[in-house]
Automatic annotation (TrEMBL):
One of its GO terms (molecular function) is nucleotide binding. GO terms for cellular component: cytoplasm. Pfam families: cobW, CobW_C. This is GTP-binding protein. Zinc chaperone that directly transfers zinc cofactor to target proteins, thereby activating them. Zinc is transferred from the CXCC motif in the GTPase domain to the zinc binding site in target proteins in a process requiring GTP hydrolysis. Residues 255-353 form the CobW C-terminal domain. Coiled coil: none annotated. Keywords: Chaperone, Hydrolase, Nucleotide-binding. SUPFAM superfamilies: Hypothetical protein YjiA, C-terminal domain, P-loop containing nucleoside triphosphate hydrolases. InterPro entries: CobW-likC_sf, CobW-like_C, CobW/HypB/UreG_nucleotide-bd, P-loop_NTPase, Zinc-reg_GTPase_activator. It catalyses: GTP + H2O = GDP + phosphate + H(+). It comes from the Bacteria. The keyword Chaperone applies.
Amino acid sequence: MTDPDRRIPVTVLTGFLGAGKTTVLNHVLRHPGAARTAVLINELGDVGVDHHLVEQVDETLVVLDGGCVCCSVQGDLVAALKRLFMQAFRKEIPPIDRVLLETTGLADPAPVVHTLMEEPFIADRYRCDGVVTAVDVTHAAGQLHEHREALRQAAMADRLLLTKCDLAAPDDIAALQATLATLNPGARQIPVTHGEVAIDDMFGGGLYTATGKLPEVAAWLGEAQVRAAAAATPAWRKPGKKAPAGPVTHHADGVESYVLRFEAPLPWWEFSDALNLILQAYSHRILRIKGVLDVRGDPLPRVIQCVQHSIYPAVSLPAWPDTPPFDDHCSRLVFIVRGLPSEEVVRTLHEFTGVAVSVQ
Ligand SMILES: Nc1nc2c(ncn2[C@@H]2O[C@H](COP(=O)(O)OP(=O)(O)OP(=O)(O)O)[C@@H](O)[C@H]2O)c(=O)[nH]1
């Protein structure tokens, strides 16, 4: 090892909702050079789906599902990194050469980087190896304009992965590249299709520094410090406490999420018609829909994903996860929306499928 800094590098993989983070993660983890990589996944919504889509499932996969890592689960992040370090130290798990942290699509990377740099136990043993931001070339132009989280993620990046290049026209990609170059001149832009990023483009960004980025980034880190200090979090966010029932608003800009549970197997075509109608009718209010479905006549769970108005081909998982809540084999859909009441969605889904739907 030529690196004199023996601390464990942590790569922060961020990017707006549905940008292709998990797809990149899976590709990277298949590379032999990524063996000994511990994976931390922070999930939004009350039912995590992402970690079931990650192919590496062992004791070095940690799910942080108590909220968004940038505002409520920094304590969980610290605890998870401490635990991983101690387990590896005691040889209870294989040695860890690096950590890959996938944030939620709405995370502000600044507090995450701040935690890595400032929390004493963590900063002594881990170093931020850079922020890699997945930018969906098919949606980024609008997202950068409409969502400050997307703007922050792009502006904070050490490297920008331009994902879904197979779905965009070269002129549109070039226009986006120009926008990103203005926004974050210091970040290298790497076009990516189906998550196929070279491992050297993913790792080895070096010690984290705000140099070369917009000056605002430093301000964001300052803001993060204030937020960390003001960790006077609501009582229900404290360890051991449960979030209140009903939809949880994650950020001040009115983005909220809810989970729908279906009481019986779904008729596929009727469900698809309902979903298409919802996407068409409410396209501007939907940020992300994803779920695991129990489809009538199919023994395997089917995963669906929508990013704004785009619906991606459904894929089957090899088996139902045997862990709660999926061990009941019920269909669940996670909606991340802005100003779209669950009642409207529930009514449409129920009318088309005839299946009872409850809001979790
Ligand atoms: N055609 C195409 N589809 C892609 C590409 N990258 C990702 N996708 C699809 O885009 C959808 C979202 O990808 P994910 O990797 O789950 O995105 P994510 O950023 O992890 O999503 P969240 O964690 O929910 O924010 C999935 O259906 C992927 O298969 C790509 O390069 N080309």
